[in-house]
Fold:
Amino acid sequence: MTPQPERLVLLGHPLSHSLSPVLHNAALSAAGIRARYEALDVPPSALEAALEELRRDRAAGNVTIPYKERVYGACDRLTDAARAVGAVNTFWTAVDGARVGDNTDVPGFNAAVTRLTGGPSPREVVAILGAGGGAAAVLRAMEGWPAAGARLYSRTRSRAEMLVQRFRVPCEIVATADSAVAGATLVVNATPVGLRDDSVPVSVDALPRTAAVLDLAYRRDETPFVRQARARGLKASDGLTMLVEQAALAFELWFGVVPDRQVMWAAIGVQR
Structure:
């Protein structure tokens, strides 16, 4: 267990859409822990200063888009999970003042896949859209899937190349989103597309009729990608399961207490 945090935050930019404060504060109240979790919207130029302030405050917290990889580089110590993914979504301040980075996105992603499809099938063909921290968590999870393979599309090919060489998963880098989803059994949106508007990462008309869709982004009314995929008759889910599961695991790391997941779901208006 880490030292009891004196401050709890979510680091990201922008954060107006985030449900993390709602679900964490519900879990804190249910556990009888006198602490509050706050959204800390930090512009890119101010991230380093914010991190040093959080160190002085002996803070812990979560990290979201677009800072998971920058915070990874700013940590004094990393867990094996964070090192494997190359991104940090959970951090805390150790007794000696060191900033420790961890990653709970991998089990969060596995939980989301299990809820959507019952779990990965043998020889799963995964289309991954994006090459950031979310995509890294997907590839790390896939290392434990039997005979799984992936096709990855990113607007920046050099970024995709650096990503895929770090994981023991057969992964082809393709030139278009349509090429990535062709023949896929699971399509994963690991970009922020659709988070704040009605855009989608790839046309749902390009998706195989037997594919499942998992959008790592989430909105209160679901993302446009999920809504359109369901309208076409596909199994589809947004990132809420991953959000709640990774948050619950982070909570346990900070406090040594298993939070009430049902309370967390209820706080965001969902009964699971």
